[in-house]
Every structure is written in C-alpha cells, then in structure tokens.
Specification:
Elements lengths: L3 E2 L2 E3 L2 E3 L6 E5 L6 E6 L3 H18 L4 H17 L1 H11 L4 H18 L2 H4 L4 E6 L2 E9 L2 E5 L7 H4 L2 H6 L3 E5 L6 H12 L7 E3 L4 H9 L3 E7 L2 H13 L3 E5 L4 E5 L5 H13 L9 E7 L6 H9 L19 H16 L3 E4 L18 E4 L6 H4 L6 E7 L2 H9 L3 E2 L1 E5 L3 H10 L4 E4 L15 E2 L2 E2 L6 H7 L1 E9 L18
Helix pairs in contact: 2-4, 2-8, 3-4, 3-8, 9-10
GO molecular function, one term: methylmalonate-semialdehyde dehydrogenase (acylating, NAD) activity
Keywords: NAD, Oxidoreductase
Enzyme class: oxidoreductase
C-alpha cells in the first residue's frame, strides 16, 4: 500500500512542503503507516497567511447570494462523498464506520446552516431614529481567520470553523490535527471544488510552533481552537496579547445523572453508547454516571452492558468501539486505570488486556467500569479520553447537582428522568453549558451555538449558531442624515443632477 504525502493548500493549490520534519500517520488498528504529514516551515505558514490576506480584498465584496451558492454546492458534495470521508476517518482515527458517518453528518449540518448566510448576516435598522436620522448596523467580515482542530473529529471540528467564517466574508487558514489529516484535506478539496476561490481557504500543518505562529500573527484577526485545556489556555493568552479574537473549546468531565424514575433500558443503553462510543475520545462523552437513590440498584445491568460492548477495528460492522488513536493515548488510559485501582475505586470491568483477533498491534482498550469513585481521585479529576466510565452514588437530586457544579469543567451534562419537574429543576440549577434531557450527548443542532462553560471554554462566543456569526463579524453602526442639496428646488418633480 502506498503512503500518502499530505500537502498544504496555499492559494487554491496543493503544495508539497519543503520541511525536513515529517510525521507518520498511522492506522491505530494495525500500526500501518498510511500517510506522512509535514511540520510546515515558518515561511510556508507566512505564505498561507499572505494568500488569505490577499484574497480577502476581493472575497469580502462577493455578494451574499454567491457565497450561499458555494455553500449549497459544498453541502451536496459532502453528502455525495460521505462514505469516502468516513473511510478516511476510520483509517486514521480508528472510530467505527457508523460513528464516522455520524461525524460527517454533524459537520454537514453546519455547512447546511451556512447556506442561510443571506439571512444570518442581516443587520438592523431604525428608520427616522431622530429627526431625519436613520441608524443601522452592518455585520462585516473581520479579515483573515484561523482554526486549530483536535484529532477526535477531523471532519466535524473543521466544519465548526471555516464554513461560517468564509460564508461571512472572511478568508481562512486551517491547521488540522497532524494525527489524522487526510479526511480534513479531502473536505478542503471538496470546498475548492464547490467554488471557494483561491486563497480563501488555506491549510498548513504542524505542532506547537505553527500554532504559536498563528496565534501571534498580526494579520490573523480571529482564532478558533478546539482541543485540550492546557493548549487552549496557552493559545488564548497568546491570541489575546496579540489583540485578536479567540474562542477556545477545551477539556471536559461530563456527567450523566440517572434518576430512579427513568426508563431503565433506554437510560442504560444511551449511557453506555455515550461513555464508550468513539472509544471515549470525545469531549462530550459522558464519562461519569451519577446514580441517584434507588437507581444504584441498576449497577448489575450497567456492568452487563459494559461487558457486552464489542471491540474491534473501525471497519468491523458490529464493533461498538475501535482502538485509541495512538499507543501513547492507550498508555495514558492504562496508567489512569492503574491509578484508579491504587486510589481505592472498585474496578468491576477491566479493559486493559483487551485482545482483538487478527489485530495484535491495535491500540485497543476495552470498556472499563469503576464504582466507588470520589472527587479526589485522578480518574475523576482528569479527562481520561478513553473508554472508562466512573460510577458515583448519591441519595438526592440536590446532591447530584451540587456534585456536578463543584467540578471545574462545564462542557455538557445529561439527566435521565420521566419527571418534567425534575428535568426543569436540573436544567435551571446546573452550571453547565449544554444540558441533555433523556439525551446522552447534548451537542445541539448546528443552528444553535455550542455553549460549553467554565473551565471548558474561553471566550464569550462559541462555534455555530448566532454566536458564530457574531464571532466572525464586526458590527459597525451607521448613523446617517441626508440633506436636500441647496441647488435643487423642492417639489416632487425636481431633477437632481449627479454631474
């Protein structure tokens, strides 16, 4: 099998990097090298930014209707190429094909939302706000925007960024994850095929040096980041110091509250899918279940469901979860499982010695379940980013809410209940950005904004929905009064000369 060499995209063309530093992209189920990605040189990053800066002069003037038609074409191309995109995700990330297709679908939702740009970017007007004075707002593009994405959603996360950024008239520089770039590159190729002009969407690759160059660069006016809390905080501070807008969607420790009046089978099935799907490698995974009162009696069913989850390569049709993205990721998860044992949690299901037939080199960790977990344990404090579920028992809804609100993160939480009163109380009192009611992963549809909070988010405005339009545009307020020219006689039949 030939190994792909991943290009940059600069000025609408695929360009091979001259960097001396390249990284192997590895299939996590087999350890086979499937691609090589460069760590671009500073000069190459400068070329990409300069291309975006040059293209902005014309792109900002392109009518909304034309931008809309490009987005319409892009959504059709994504839909037609879903299988190819999903296969690339599975090959380099490891998630199952159904999960990968679901990711493409969530990314597609954002592009479909961008097709409404003709109404999303409208301003407001107050006619005759004062005597013969009109006041109105314009939502104008900022200039060059940039995005830095994590490995866990190589299609969805770029879609959280560049479609709305360029639809609002900005140009863009994207740095995808170096761990699984091929599906992102194919997405960008589809965008160019849809009619995105040269220079409007550029791609560079690399690690911290490239990320820092983007954060520091004076030409880039806004930066969107999705990834770890540590990196997000560093980039946020650098971007702020450089005077640019920044949104950073970062780490999480999500909780799922199960009330004793919930639909038992639905709650458990949804909980297990949320915790273990994509091998737990998603910031919205519910990695902690809080069993309230008599719901603790359901633990045997949760254990049985955990043991029945099937592990295999992402191409295996009946696999519930695939491998972790890298050996380093697997080693980290194993270390945290060991720490959980040492700190006194009860390990009911151990996935460390998971073996998958015909895939002896895969980065597999099976579904793992701890009970008797407390807030001071490493398996609770840290975002494990693996298929590990922690069980916490409390007596009341009040205790569950207090326990969740004490966690420093606020990305997402869910509750399973058949009581409307309980659900309303939970959504009101919980201090978390995204709440699911009988929904295990409360990522909203794309025309609502992604609204993580507290330690999970830096910046006032999140991706998608109305917040994204505000993030990628500058509001300009115009106060206008027009006087009748002195050399024109009054009357309805007056003719005004423009010479």
């Amino acid at each position: 099998m030939s190994v792909r060499e991943i290009p940059m995209i600069i000025d609408g063309q695929a360009v091979m990097s001259e960097s001396q530093e390249w990284r192997d992209v590895v299939n996590p189920a087999t350890q086979e090298v499937v691609a090589r990605v460069p760590f671009c040189t500073p000069e190459e990053v400068e070329r990409a930014i300069a291309s975006a800066q040059k293209a902005f002069k014309e792109w900002r003037k392109v009518p909304l209707g034309k931008r809309m038609r490009i987005m319409l074409t892009l959504q059709a191309l994504i839909r037609d190429n879903t299988d190819e995109l999903a296969a690339l995700i599975t090959e380099e990330h490891g998630k199952t094909l159904p999960d990968a297709k679901g990711e493409v679908g969530r990314g597609l939702e954002v592009v479909e939302h961008a097709c409404s740009i003709t109404s999303l970017q409208l301003g407001e007007v107050a006619e005759n706000a004062a005597s013969d004075v009109d006041v109105y707002t314009l939502h104008q593009p900022l200039g060059v925007g940039a995005g830095i994405t994590a490995f866990n959603f190589p299609i969805m996360l770029p879609c959280f960024m560049f479609p709305l950024a360029i639809a609002t008239g900005n140009t863009f520089v994207l740095k995808p994850s170096e761990q699984d770039p091929s599906s992102t590159m194919r997405l960008v190729e589809l965008a160019l095929e849809a009619g995105v002009p040269a220079g409007v969407l550029n791609v560079v690759h690399g690690g911290p040096d490239v990320a820092n160059q983007i954060a520091d660069h004076p030409v880039i006016k806004a930066l969107s980041f999705i990834g770890s809390s540590h990196v997000g905080a560093l980039l946020y501070n650098r971007a702020a110091a450089a005077g640019k807008r920044m949104q950073a969607m970062m780490g999480a420790k999500n909780h799922c509250v199960v009330m004793p009046d919930a639909n038992r089978s639905q709650a458990i099935n949804n909980l297990l899918g949320s915790a273990f799907g994509a091998a737990g490698q998603r910031c919205m995974a519910n990695s902690v279940v809080v069993l309230v009162g008599e719901a603790r009696q359901w633990i045997d069913d949760i254990v049985e469901g955990t043991r029945n989850m099937k592990v295999g390569p992402g191409t295996q049709q009946d696999a519930d979860l695939g491998p972790l993205v890298s050996p380093a990721a697997r080693d980290r998860v194993v270390r945290l499982i060991e720490a959980g044992e040492k700190e006194g949690a009860t390990l009911l299901v151990d996935g460390r010695n998971c073996q998958v037939t015909d895939y002896p080199k895969g980065n597999f960790v099976g579904p793992t379940l701890f009970t008797d977990v407390t807030a001071n344990m490493a398996i609770y404090r840290e975002e494990i980013f693996g298929p590990v579920l922690c069980v916490v028992n409390v007596e009341t809804l009040d205790e569950a809410i207090a326990f969740i609100n004490e966690n420093p993160n606020g990305n997402g939480t869910s509750i399973f209940t058949n009581s409307g009163w309980v659900a309303r109380r939970f959504e009101t009192d919980i201090d978390v950005g995204q709440v699911g009611i009988n929904v295990p992963i409360p990522v909203p549809v794309a025309y609502f904004s992604f609204t993580g909070s507290r330690g999970s988010k830096l910046g006032d405005l999140g991706p998608n929905g109305k917040q994204a339009i505000a993030f990628w545009t500058q509001t300009k307020t115009v106060t206008a009064r027009w006087f009748e020219p002195e050399n024109v006689s009054s009357g309805i039949n007056s003719t005004i000369s423009l010479s």
